[in-house]
């Protein structure tokens, strides 16, 4: 459950990429609990359908799911347009989908680089391009681009991913300046190491987790809900004069 209620989000149309699992699924659930009209895209249709059923049972709100490969910009834009036809023009856009596959400098090809950036950075520009006119017509909106503190820390092991996540901060600042006159706010939400199912399955070890906690001011792990709570704030009128900023949810990792 979220820790705060935002009445202005009730009935608002929200579009989320990568909403089928992990942090994205927490976003879907949290916004539905606020009474928002939520559409999301994901690659894993089975997992997404189970999420839709669970969210409807918990909140009474059924999210709208479409299967989409976000690296296909035309397909992604078509999904946004279809969802807007059903739910209304979007007041909130959350660019969440990402792929943090580990890779080595020596073994990464130009095609690998393009594939990483086409998932982790390029969609954020074109989703914003797609929703901007609808937000402008409504008198404003909120775009939230999910980054990663891997870019702030310069972590090794996935340099293309870290590059993309650094680019998200620059893109958010540029779009905030570009869209600000239309009362469209753009911010980056930057999580630390969130203990999603994927992270626990692939990367979490006792030693790595302890090293992370030693570097955090707050000595507990970060949950998907911690990120969702911050996304609700950035989407709502409670953050009406916040734009071009980075909200870091990493337990004070230094």
Q: What helical percentage do the residues reach?
A: 40-55%
Percentage beta strand: 5-15%
Counting helices, strands and paired strands, the structural category is alpha/beta
Helix-strand sequence: EHEHEHEHHEHHEHHHE
Can you list the strand order of the major beta sheet? 3-2-1-4-5-6-7
- Cα gyration radius (Å): 17 Å
Label the overall shape: globular
* Average of pLDDT: 95
Q: In terms of per-residue confidence, which ranges show pLDDT below 50 for 5 or more consecutive residues?
A: none
Annotation field: number of helices: 10
Count of strand segments: 7
Characterize the largest beta sheet: strand count, sense, and whether it forms a barrel: 7 strands, parallel
> How far apart lie the N and C ends?
29 Å
Short description, anyone?
With 254 residues, the protein is of the alpha/beta class. It is 49% helix and 15% strand. The protein is built from ten helices and seven strands.
Describe the structure.
The chain is of the alpha/beta class. It has 10 helices and 7 strands. It has helices spanning 22-33, 45-59, 73-87, 110-120, 122-138, 149-153, 159-179, 197-202, 206-215, 224-235; strands spanning 13-17, 37-42, 64-67, 92-95, 141-146, 184-191, 246-249. Strands 3-2-1-4-5-6-7 form a 7-stranded parallel β-sheet, sandwiched between helices. Strand 1, helix 1 (22-33) and strand 2 form a beta-alpha-beta unit. The longest helix is centred in the middle third of the chain and has 21 residues, at 159-179. It is globular, with a radius of gyration of 17 Å. The protein starts with 12 loop residues before the first strand and ends in a 5-residue tail after the last strand. The relative contact order is 0.15. The model has no long low-confidence stretch (mean pLDDT 95).
């Amino acid at each position: 459950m979220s820790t705060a209620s935002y009445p202005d989000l009730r009935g608002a149309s929200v579009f989320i990429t990568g909403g089928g699992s992990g942090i994205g699924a927490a976003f879907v659930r949290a916004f539905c609990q606020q009474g928002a009209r939520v559409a999301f895209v994901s690659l894993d249709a089975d997992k997404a359908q189970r999420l839709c059923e669970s969210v409807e049972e918990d909140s009474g709100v059924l999210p709208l799911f479409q299967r989409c490969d976000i690296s296909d910009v035309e397909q992604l834009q078509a999904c946004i347009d279809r969802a807007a036809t059903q739910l209304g023009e979007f007041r909130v856009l959350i660019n969440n989908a990402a792929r943090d596959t580990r890779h080595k400098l020596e073994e990464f090809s130009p095609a690998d680089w393009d594939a990483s950036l086409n998932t982790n950075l390029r969609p954020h520009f074109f989703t914003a391009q797609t929703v901007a006119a609808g937000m402008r017509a409504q008198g404003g909106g909120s775009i939230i681009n999910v980054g990663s503190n891997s870019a702030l820390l310069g972590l090794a092991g996935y340099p293309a991913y870290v590059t993309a996540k650094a680019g998200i901060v620059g893109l958010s600042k540029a779009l905030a300046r570009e869209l600000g006159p239309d009362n469209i706010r753009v911010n980056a939400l930057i999580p630390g190491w969130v203990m999603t199912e994927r992270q626990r399955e692939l990367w979490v070890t006792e030693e790595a987790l302890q090293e992370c906690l030693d570097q955090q001011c707050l000595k507990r792990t970060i949950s998907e809900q911690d990120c969702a709570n911050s996304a609700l704030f950035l989407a709502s009128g409670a953050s009406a004069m916040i734009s071009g900023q980075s909200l870091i949810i990493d337990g004070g990792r230094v």
